[in-house]
Amino acid sequence: MANLNRCLVVWSGLSGLPGVSVFYGVAGGDPTGSLAAFFTAVQSVFPAGLSWTVPSSGDTIEDSTGVLTGGWTGAGGATVAASGAAAHAAGCGAYVTWSTGQIVGGRRLKGRTFLAPLMNSAYDNQGTIVTGNRTTLQNAATTLAATSDIAVWHRPTSVGGSDGIGAVITAGDVPDQVTSLRTRRR
């Protein structure tokens, strides 16, 4: 691929935040519109008070080394506010596994985006995600994979190495499984 545009989407507004989701766009592309559309599509599953800020610019890295090569500017960033019920369990939510067609070390290159916290009513009596909410998340992931130029980046395997690689996502899967985030802060 050569260059990737790093896009840091900031999560804010709730206890335990801010947090960041890192996305990569292909060089020459503008990930801002696709990412704003993704978070707008899922806003009803997240608690009111949460917001995502998609930046209008960021760093460009060379994918084989991870070296900063410059910057990018998009058509415009956005702030998207969640619109679901306010009650939530901090750090509990869902995730998207992003697939690519790239093989690295005998395995398919995949990425993951954690989506937490979901609102309390997003869970069913079995402790998994309510079908309608999972469908909302899945549809947004499928649309992002189909209509954007978002990529997954595999870092070099050694310090100073040059075997990193980026690959465009081809699919996103939201399993009916709850995940939790842990903090390293004490």
Number of domains: 1
Mean pLDDT: 94
Distance between the termini: 39 Å
The profile of the biggest β sheet is:
11 strands, antiparallel
- The structure class reads alpha+beta
Work out the radius of gyration.
Answer: 17 Å
Proportion of residues in β-strands = 35-45%
Characterize this entry briefly.
By secondary structure, this protein is α+β, with helices and mostly antiparallel strands.
Polypeptide structure, described:
The protein has one domain (3-180). The mean pLDDT is 94. The chain starts with a strand and ends in a 6-residue tail after the last strand. The longest helix has 17 residues, at 131-147. The radius of gyration is 17 Å and the shape is globular. The chain has helices at residues 32-42, 131-147, and strands at residues 3-12, 19-26, 51-54, 57-62, 68-73, 78-81, 92-104, 107-115, 150-154, 165-173, 179-180. A hairpin with a 5-residue loop joins strand 4 (57-62) and strand 5 (68-73). The chain is built from two helices and eleven strands, in the order ββαββββββαβββ.
